[in-house]
C-alpha cells in the first residue's frame, strides 16, 4: 500500500516540474496563450549563396531546361508538319497508336515541363529564400503602403537576380516566347481554309432542278400556283460523303405565283412563267425558311420567325435576318425541264457577305 502511494506522488511531482518554460525561438507560453508563436528559424545560407561556382552551375542547369523547352517546341511544330495524320506506329507499352498524336503530346509536354522545372530550380537555388513575417494590415492601400509595395517589388526583382543571371533570363524569355507557337500551329486544325468555296455552290449553267423528295427533274407543270417545292441541283448524291456540305449551300425552293402578283420586275425576269427559285437557307443563321403562306406569298423561317416576301424579291419583312434570300435564274431546256442559268450571284446562307 505504501509503495503504490509513493508511485502516485512521484507521478504528480513530475507532471510540471520538468517541462520547459520556453518554446523554440524564444517565445514564452503564457497562461492565456498556450500556443505562442514559435517564431522563424534562423536563416541558413545555401551553397549557391556562398559559392559563385555553384550558383553558375545552377544557372546553367536552368538555362539547359529552358533551352530544352525551346527545342521541344520546335519539335512540336516539326512533328505537326512532317508526320502524316493517318500514320500508325507501334510504341511499347502503348501499342499501335497515332504517331502524330504521340509526337505532339510528347514534345508539348516536354516543353511545358521544362519551363516549370527550370522556374522551380531557379527559385530554389538562385532566388532569395529568406522568409519574412509581415503583420496583417487594412485592405485599403495608403500612399505609404503603395510606396512600400513598389519598394518590395524592386527588391524582389533584385533578389530574383533576373538582371544579373542573363543566361537564365534570356533562355526563359526564349522558352516562353516559343511555347505559344504550339497553340498557333494547332489553329490549323480548326478546319480547311475556306478560300472562295463559300462563294460557289453546286449550281451551274444547265444544271437540272431536281425534286428533293422524288429525285426527279421538274417540269413547269409539276409546280402549281400556290405551291412550294423543295429542290436541289442534279448530280448531288444523298449517299455521298460531301452531300450535306453541298446541299447546305445549294438547297432551293420553287414557288409559282400569278405573273401579276410578282412585284419585283427582276424576280419576274429571273423566273419562268411565274415560277421563282430562291435559296431556302435563311440569311439569319441558316435554318430552312420553307413555311409558306399562299395568300401573302410570305416564307417564314421557323427558328426565329424571319419573314421573306417571295413576291417582292424575297425581301425581309420581319425578324432578325438582314438580307433577302438569293434568287436563282432559271429557264426551261429543250426537253421541257427546268434548269439553272448559273450559280447564285451572291453567296447563300447567314449574312455571309458581311463576313466574306
Description:
With 356 residues, the chain is an alpha+beta fold. The chain folds into two domains: 47-190, no CATH class; 198-354, 3-layer Sandwich (Rieske Iron-sulfur Protein), CATH 2.102.10.10. The protein is 36% helix and 13% strand. The protein is built from eight helices and twelve strands. A four-stranded antiparallel sheet has the order 3-4-5-6. It has a four-stranded antiparallel sheet with strand order 7-8-9-10, with no helix packed on it. A two-stranded antiparallel sheet has the order 1-2. Helix 3 (52-82) runs antiparallel to helix 4. The longest helix is centred in the N-terminal third of the chain and has 31 residues, at 52-82. The N and C termini lie far apart (105 Å). It is a multi-pass membrane protein. Residues 1-47 are annotated as: Disordered. Residues 249-339 form the Rieske domain.
The share of residues in helices is 25-40%
Oligomer: single chain
**Briefly, what CATH class of the largest domain?**
Mainly Beta
The CATH topology of the largest domain corresponds to Rieske Iron-sulfur Protein
State the end-to-end CA separation.
105 Å
Structural class by sheet pairing and helices: alpha+beta
What is the CA-atom radius of gyration, in angstroms?
A: 39 Å
| CATH architectural type of the largest domain | 3-layer Sandwich
Transmembrane segments: 62-83, 103-123, 167-187
GO molecular function, one term: metal ion binding
Family: Belongs to the Rieske iron-sulfur protein family.
Region (Disordered): 1-47
Amino acid at each position: 500500500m505504501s509503495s503504490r502511494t509513493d508511485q502516485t506522488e512521484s507521478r504528480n511531482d513530475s507532471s510540471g516540474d520538468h517541462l520547459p518554460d520556453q518554446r523554440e525561438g524564444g517565445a514564452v507560453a503564457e497562461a492565456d496563450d498556450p500556443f505562442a508563436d514559435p517564431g522563424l528559424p534562423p536563416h541558413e545560407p545555401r551553397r549557391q549563396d556562398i559559392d559563385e561556382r555553384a550558383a553558375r552551375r545552377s544557372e546553367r542547369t536552368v538555362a539547359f531546361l529552358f533551352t530544352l523547352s525551346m527545342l521541344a517546341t520546335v519539335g512540336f511544330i516539326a512533328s505537326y508538319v512532317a508526320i502524316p495524320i493517318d500514320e500508325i506506329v507501334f510504341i511499347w507499352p502503348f501499342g499501335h497508336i497515332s504517331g502524330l498524336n504521340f509526337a505532339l503530346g510528347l514534345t508539348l509536354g516536354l516543353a511545358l515541363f521544362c519551363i516549370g522545372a527550370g522556374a522551380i530550380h531557379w527559385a530554389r537555388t538562385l532566388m532569395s529564400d529568406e522568409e519574412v513575417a509581415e503583420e496583417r494590415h487594412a485592405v485599403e492601400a495608403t500612399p505609404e503602403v503603395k510606396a512600400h509595395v513598389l519598394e518590395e517589388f524592386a527588391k524582389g526583382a533584385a533578389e530574383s537576380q533576373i538582371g544579373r543571371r542573363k543566361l537564365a533570363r534570356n533562355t526563359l524569355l526564349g522558352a516562353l516566347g516559343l511555347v505559344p507557337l504550339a497553340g498557333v500551329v494547332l489553329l490549323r486544325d480548326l478546319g480547311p481554309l475556306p478560300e472562295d468555296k463559300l462563294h460557289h455552290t453546286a449550281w451551274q449553267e444547265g444544271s437540272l432542278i431536281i425534286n428533293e423528295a422524288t429525285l426527279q427533274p421538274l417540269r413547269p407543270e409539276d409546280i402549281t400556283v400556290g405551291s412550294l417545292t423543295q429542290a436541289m441541283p442534279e448530280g448531288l448524291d444523298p449517299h455521298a460523303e460531301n452531300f450535306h456540305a453541298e446541299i447546305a449551300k445549294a438547297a432551293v425552293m420553287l414557288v409559282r405565283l400569278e405573273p401579276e402578283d410578282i412585284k419585283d420586275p427582276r424576280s419576274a425576269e429571273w423566273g419562268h412563267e411565274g415560277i421563282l427559285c430562291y435559296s431556302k437557307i435563311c440569311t439569319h443563321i441558316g435554318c430552312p425558311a420553307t413555311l409558306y403562306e399562299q395568300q401573302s406569298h410570305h416564307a417564314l423561317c421557323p427558328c426565329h420567325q424571319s419573314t421573306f416576301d417571295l413576291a417582292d424579291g424575297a425581301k425581309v419583312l420581319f425578324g432578325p435576318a438582314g438580307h433577302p434570300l438569293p434568287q436563282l435564274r432559271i429557264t426551261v431546256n429543250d426537253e421541257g425541264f427546268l434548269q439553272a442559268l448559273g450559280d447564285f450571284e451572291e453567296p447563300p446562307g447567314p449574312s455571309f457577305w458581311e463576313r466574306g
